[in-house]
Known about the structure:
Strand order of the largest sheet: 1-3-4-2-5-6-7
Largest sheet: 7 strands, mixed
Radius of gyration: 16 Å
Low-confidence stretches: none
Order of helices and strands: EEHEEHEHEHEH
Number of strands: 7
Bound molecules: guanosine-5'-triphosphate, magnesium ion
CATH superfamily: P-loop containing nucleotide triphosphate hydrolases
CATH class: Alpha Beta
Strand content: 15-25%
Helix content: 25-40%
Oligomer: single chain
Amino acid sequence: MEVHTAEFIASHPRESQCPKDGRPEFAFIGRSNVGKSSLLNMLTARKGLAKVSATPGKTQLINYFLINKTWYLVDLPGYGYAKVSKDKQKILASMIKGYLFQRESLKLAFVLIDPNIPPTKIDLEFINGLGEHSVPFALVFTKADKLGPVKIQQNIDVFMQELSKSWETLPPYFTSSAERRTGKAEILNHIDLVLKAK
Ligand code: GTP
Ligand code: MG
């Protein structure tokens, strides 16, 4: 699939305020700073569309981008950023969960994972939470430019093995680098498949 148009639509603090037009949507979620906004910009080939920052905690609202006038990409705030206040963390966590667990037009959540570090408890718990609420998801291992391909694959294997302790069927996964612009075709193809599935 080609991205012909990508427009920022709006930012919302809660699911109940999000668009009600029923267009299918795909969301990016993951630990703060894992590269959600960068991936959105890479997929749409629009550099400043979603705000990127070296400081974790940049995205603090549910951000809607309309793609090809037909479906939405949704950039969510990250979880697990220790440096924001406890109150703010609670607000962000309920914003993320409120969105993911209630959103009927959500076709698939892409959970972004950093394969440059060992599996984290917070990612594994988050994924298990999606399972408990039957949220359909796929994984994207980001920042794949930071280690060699062999090491990245080894780390991905370790992560998938960890997941297989609690999941009978493993989710599809993709590998990406916003820096090198890799993974784009595979992720867009997967979105296309989901859009075309009944
Ligand atoms: P929050 O909105 O704060 O949760 O962060 P985010 O997940 O949206 O991450 P963002 O896209 O803002 O990127 C965080 C940092 O990681 C920035 O400094 C990016 O330049 C960097 N980054 C993102 N993707 C990649 C990548 O593929 N490779 C490398 N090396 N750095 C990346
Ligand atoms: Mg962001």
